[in-house]
Amino acid sequence: MKDKRKRTIPLGRAVLLCVLCLLAGMAVVLGLLGGMLGRDGVTLLQANYLIEKTFVGEYDREAYMDTVLNTMVEALGDRWSYYLDAESVQQTQETRSNAYVGIGITISQEAMDGLEILSVTPGGAAQAAGIQPGEIIRSVDGTVITKENREEMVDAIRGQEGTSVVLTVEGADGVQRTVEIVRGTIQGVSAQWSMLEGQVGYLTIANFYSGTAQQVSQGLTELVKQGAQALVLDVRFNPGGYVTEMTEILDQLLPEGDIFRSEDYRGREYVYQSDEMGTFLPMAVLINGDSYSAAEFLAAQLQESAGAVLVGAQTSGKGFSQRLLPLVGGGGLNLSTARYFTGAGRSLIGTGLTPDLPVEMDEETQIKCYRGQLPPEEDLQLQAALEALAGE
């Protein structure tokens, strides 16, 4: 009969085996991390670990991470890529949806004290309350706005739908008044239109975010029904937006053909085309230094495919496409992940668009134009476009 006595392993040897297994496991993990993240990625993880475990001082963890991520993106040297914290991500998504909860104003924080109202959204609660562009908000719910608390006061104006905010507003004459405004869902107006003398349809496109193409379609339909014989499209101060919105608008305006190209970070090319239906009218496009991205490519393609006259000032030359990539912590990276080209393959990176008819504006006139306070007869760029169309 065989001896069934148990075999034992000395304690020291057992501990050694455990340590070796642990080290082997760590080596495998580090190998996997190295394969996925590369040497630089592992170095970043190591630095973060060492700070977290060995740094003896006190620090704000959230502020630390925001600074690290912001610095990483800034080091790319791309002015179009940036880091957003969690709150900024939410605000950006609201902006791009062309709908948000608020009172319907755009403000500037450049004033020494107070918040200057740059524009008022048509149909919004602020407009109904009589708020005007150019006025200054002096206090919010009784708290006077100062240089130190501006950001806090901007946040205080925002709030939940159905709640109210009390603003003290100062007009250009220095007279102040108190206005109570109920917050609500604001549907952004991204396209506006009117008929000018000579049966010229004037269509302003504020951005290319959600719903813009539908609004532009409505505007084009109404202008054509009213007998428009030519079109002026205004994309001055337009920050760009979604490719899908821009190409849908181009499809409505242009005949059959290639109207846009993009190449992603993997080198894959996408070509967008329009069908044979279009708006076959003479066109001019108003542009300036604040016409970005989709606004530039809309103007470039109308020039390229329909011979549209470009009027105004040199554009910025934004030829990269950005994606908002979410992060685990709630923030996000708005990174350039693709390149843009016109239908014929022209890039605008670093060059932008040079107007066929250069017409400059002084700073004061530009501010009026941005606020929508510049009468058509005083808008020299618009008048130059009308003259160009009349001469065709």
Secondary structure: helix percent: 25-40%
The rounded distance between the terminal residues' Cα atoms is: 113 Å
Rg for CA atoms: 28 Å
Shape: globular
Strand content: 25-35%
What is the helix/strand order? HHEHEEEHEEHEEEEEHEHEEEHEEEEHH
Name some characteristics of this structure.
392 residues; alpha+beta; 6-stranded mixed beta sheet; 19 strands
Task: Describe the fold and architecture.
With 392 residues, this protein is of the alpha+beta class. The chain has 10 helices and 19 strands. The protein has helices spanning 11-54, 61-74, 86-96, 125-128, 150-157, 212-225, 243-253, 294-306, 363-371, 380-390, and strands spanning 82-84, 99-102, 105-108, 115-120, 136-140, 143-144, 164-170, 176-182, 184-187, 191-196, 200-205, 230-234, 257-264, 269-274, 283-287, 309-312, 320-326, 332-342, 357-358. Strands 3, 4, 5, 6, 7 and 8 form a 6-stranded antiparallel sheet that branches. A hairpin with a 3-residue loop joins strand 10 (191-196) and strand 11 (200-205). Helix 6 (212-225) runs parallel beside helix 7 (243-253) and helix 7 (243-253) packs parallel to helix 8 (294-306). The termini are far apart.
